[in-house]
Amino acid sequence: MPEIYLEGMVGAPPWPDEPHFTAATVRAELARAGGDDVTVYLNCPGGLATEGLAVFHALSGYSGKVSVVVSGIAASAGSLVAMAGEDIVMLTGAMMMIHDPAVPFIEGRGTEAEHRDMADSLALMSQGYAEVYATRAGITAEAAREIMRAETWFTAEDAVAAGFATRADASVASDAAAFAYATYHHSPRHLLAGPRAASPSPQAVMAWIGGTPPATPQMKESDMDPEDDDDLTTGQGDDTTEGGDAADDTPPAGGDTPEDDDDAQGDDDAAEDDDDTGPAAEASAICAIVEMNGGSLSQAGDFIAQGIGLRGVIAHYQQKGHNVPKPTRGPSTRILRDERETRRAGMTAALAAQFARRDPTDDRARPFMSMSLVEMAANASGYRGSLRTADDRLRVFMDMHSTSDFPLALSNALNKALADRYREAPSIYRQIAREKSFKDFRAHSIIRPGDFPMLQKLGEGGEIKAGTIGESAEAVTLVPYAVRFDVTRQVLINDDTGAIADAIADQGRMVARFEEMTFFAVCFGNSGNGPTLSNNRAVFNTNDGTKANAGAAIGVDTLGTGRAAIRKHKSLGGASLNLSARILLVSPDQETAAEQVVSPLVPADAAKVNPFAGKLTVLSSAELKGNGWYLLTDPADAAQFVFGFLEGASGPRMRMEEPFGRSGMSWSLEHDFAAGSAGRVGGWFNPGQ
User: Fold this and answer.
1) Largest interatomic CA distance in the chain
2) pLDDT, tens digit, for every residue of 63-106?
3) pTM over 0.85
4) Is the peptide bond before 687 cis (omega within 30 degrees of 0)?
5) Counting beta carbons within 10 angstroms of the beta carbon of residue 188, is it exposed (0 to 12), middle (13 to 18) or buried (19 or more)?
6) Which domains are present in the chain?
7) CA Rg value for the chain
8) Phi–psi pair at 73, nearest 5 degrees
9) What is the pLDDT of residues 542-565, one digit of tens each?
């Protein structure tokens, strides 16, 4: 069985001597495995959240079986990588840590809008991580988020008990990979004293994770002798030249030769910079050049890992026809995070407008409105090649998953379009039931209106008499639902935004119809009598006065009987509730008859005045069958039924199930919905005739 060793940080850091791995290297290893089952030995202290997600998708999408052995540590993004294993084995002494993705700062001016945009991005990333952890452990995404927020550390046994590993192994784990573990809040003490635990510094690590490669070489704390302060200030130390720059007369790595200067315009200037910068500064400049040309930190890390120097990177892009200016030191050489986020926000708004077939409301969308899906994907990933052939377009969609933020922009736009179509779909059940928010998937008690004790006169000594709340409150449980669907390669090749928009519109309406069907099946099933309550009686039954003794057609007399029954409903404590019938609910077969009975027409004979004119609202649902009909109270007064969603997720949501590939892309549509009875008051049923 092929073995893959993933040691060090996930993502290429700007410190070339640090062990690391990237999604590109993992995909290359998997390609060499040729579909055979593989064992991945993982010793990863963390790194880039996006790169960890890309590695997870590379492993989880592999055709063969993937077994993961945590041989030292799987922390932060490394723990997400571990979740890709069908088997996850923790060696004795190995550790796993799960926490929220983070960035240490906001680039730009740090305005309120910039902070909110960053918070939104982190929320999406955290939710994506939580869903992976939740799937592995068999818990809810919200439960996974709580574990993440707490920065939870697991021993081998703890990880197995929590469901994040399948078994522990008696083999002794190796030392945890070197890392600045002080970066984390609750690192175990032995990791804080581990090898090179302070180099690079936590500040440098967080700067890298936040998207800012260090502009100066990193120093170990042990190297910073207080007696050298004057040297560092004046530039007169042993290892500095005049002016304070570190001396480095070694030509850059990557095989660059003096002849290269003739091949790349501006290399003379770059060469001068190479002479007075250290390896970390050169790595920073390489990251800047790659980002300026639409690349990612992962691509920059690949250049650095291959030993390609700054001049070689400049030549690489100039040979592709790019205009590469001389890089300058510091943040001014990089595309700032707010610019990338502005582009992503613009693409999101443009895609949402295209899906809705309307003009955008966000000015940031204007530059992208004339672009197709593949053109936006190419723009986001820095692709400069041809888009003429079907293979060109497919390649852009396949390669962009780990090299751009276009998938996030597309996901945001699809979810917005889905939410819009979902909200636009009409529903009957929302007009006859009360909404409730559910914190989790356990059964939730519904205390009915009127179940609270009545006020009682104070005793002579001012004592307050005790009352009791009804004990037979009903229970309703939130149920998760999901379906997977594909966007075919034909749609991608055709670059058909309209087809995707129509599919999303259909999905939004489908979810609304699903809710309607589910609600009526739960609340009006059982031959129209509704679900069984805690007293072992159906919602509508003759003993409780919630059902007619005999079926009859809709008429003034039968409506009067039902109205009186509702008016006489009492609480569990025996108190009169004095409720009014407000809704006449019927099947399509009885809709016309119902409207005729409650018509406000004025009769010539005063004895035939319709007492229900203007007092009842007729509602009809295709989910009801036959001649039966219902009188219901306004759900704001006394809800006979309730419905609800998971707290903070009151609508359907989509997420990418599998990355873009030659067969298309796969999405999952997920929705959590609850429906049930709040008790026996608030309605009356006549089976009709």
Assistant:
1) 113
2) 899 999 999 999 999 999 999 999 999 999 999 999 998 876 66
3) no
4) no
5) middle
6) 1-230 (3.90.226.10), 431-689 (3.90.1690)
7) 33
8) -150, 150
9) 998 999 999 999 988 999 999 999
